[in-house]
Write a structure and sequence with these properties.
A four-stranded antiparallel sheet has the order 2-3-1-4, covered by helices on one side. 33% of the residues lie in helices and 31% in strands. The protein starts with a strand and ends in a 6-residue tail after the last strand. The protein has a single domain, classed as Alpha-Beta Plaits (2-Layer Sandwich), CATH 3.30.70. It is globular and about 35 Å long. It is an alpha+beta fold and 86 residues long.
Amino acid sequence: MWIVELAFNDEPERLAARAAHRQRLSALQSEGVVRMAGPFADDSGAMIVFDVADQPGLEQLMADDPYFTTPGVRVHQVRQWRPFLR
């Protein structure tokens, strides 16, 4: 699994792109690719947990979603995660 942490600022493009991004994440959750996702309580960013085998697969998912390059959205950190409880 992979954890993607996003950082946000107040660019209006971010809010305009958010609905389509959330629809995409919901579809990926239905496929078992996204395990959980959501903004931090202070809306300074968000975290998404992807269940994909490798980094190239993750990078392709992110490239297919324009939200990750929308003004106001910055990919702060990407980390591989190996949970022992599911």
